[in-house]
Amino acid sequence: MTKAVLVVESPHMIKTATDALSGHPAFDGWQWKGAATFGHLMDLRKEPFDLEWSPVNPAILEGFVERIAEADQIVVATDPDDEGERIAFQVRSIAQMVNPEARVNRIRTHAWVPDVLNEVLGNPSKLVFHPEAAFSAERRRAFDRMVGMVFGAPGRIKGAFLRAWQEQPPPTHYSDERVIVRPPGCASLLMQATRHGLSVKEAYDQLCDAWAKGQVSYPRTDGTLYDPSLAALAVRIAQQRGIRNATGQDLIGENGSHTALVPTRVRAGRNESGILEILRDLTASAVSGKPIRPPSSGQAMPEDARWLSVAQRQQLGRPSTLSSHIQSLSGETLPGQQGLTPAASEKLNRTPEGLTGSHQAEIEQAMSNPGIRLSDFFERLGAKPAPGELKSSSWQAAAQSVSEMMPGISRTEMAQRLKRSDLNFTV
Fold first, then answer.
1. Residue 300 domain-assigned?
2. Cβ(160)–Cβ(320) under 8 Å?
3. CA-to-CA distance for 121 and 114, rounded, in angstroms?
């Protein structure tokens, strides 16, 4: 019997994921246990101008190490995006250190259902680690940390939200135009949910809960096309609603690490939240290609929906952070008016326009570029280089933390093992 540990990010996902793999013939004879990372295992320390990585929660890291120490196979099924890849590399590095005899494998799946798993297991590109994605995520994290240290509140993304609202306030009422629906990503689904009376936070929480239960494809996505297996599922949902002669072939395509959202059940099941029925309506409309008139047409938009419309217009934030950004912006606008509060305007005036302007896509690209130095990055923003002495990012702090759990292996050797992921960047 093969002792296997399946690594996921949330403990709520463990049962869904292990049940899916336990029933798959590719893993016949494997005895599964689950281990959750609870998000990132390692993050930057909070000391000013310190780019050293250390455990987010030493107790969680210690429990994780114990969980994987005796495994024959470790399957890393963290989320199928850049942040999930960053966590996957943290897991692989620690696993190579605490259990070097185990095989460490990667699975990038957008849904825990048989058809999708069959497609994933037959696609080598979804069964390998992606260092470039993890590298980009780590650089973004470090650069955003440094931006916060240099400029303080409101930060790069929140500042961009505030500037976008100041320069072009969003609509005050929902549009009453009929629209042709594309396969929905996270933001478009959340906006539709606000038309049904849900807040952005309520809708996002329902979506994440459905993902943990295996009821929906990966939710933190901005994709507008489907993988083939998800397109087939979308067509079945449309057919169940009376739409005939639709193949969904025009909805299949590459989305980078993202694919559009789709429920994993054709019909509503027990213990489902309302967000999934809203998603089925959008899915059927996308497959049919027929324009629809959304609910709440012409009605006033709540503040969080208006902030969401800013995010959509300016392409601000990542799907995984949209809800938290919008929550943090609550109360930053004058009630019943188009403008920002005096306090919000003051925060914005303290932040260079180059940091919060409309060119966020270019900033994201620069942050992911392995050839750019931190000083060059700040110069592009029209800002002075960060003061103080910067420490190079390394795995030394991580090695120290884990070595305390494993007497007999030196800190230097720990660091060497951890650095196999080659995720250092230049400051």
1. no
2. no
3. 10
